[in-house]
Design brief:
The chain is of the alpha+beta class and 100 residues long. It has one helix at 16-32, and strands at residues 64-66, 73-75. The protein has a two-stranded antiparallel ribbon with strand order 1-2.
Amino acid sequence: MVRTEASPPEGKTGNPLSRMVDRVGHSMAGTLGGTQAADENPEDPRPIAERPCPLCGHAMGEHFVDHSTPNSMLVCPTSERLPERAIDTPLNELGMPIDR
């Protein structure tokens, strides 16, 4: 059967390569699992949900993650913010501290 149109099959989106990558990704998701949050301070005995947020100081368990956009956003329970730490190291061209 030869298709006369260049559009994807009905109910499908993208081109054949992107659909194949999606199928492979969905089939491997169960094997590989999802992403896990990295524990940046493993010597802290408290659960991650009880640790303070680096932005507002409230417990991380009070926050939620907004997944409604392609870029997930951490939503703090308050608009208050902790004061920024003084950076005493030089910055690179992107404004990030240089680790020496």
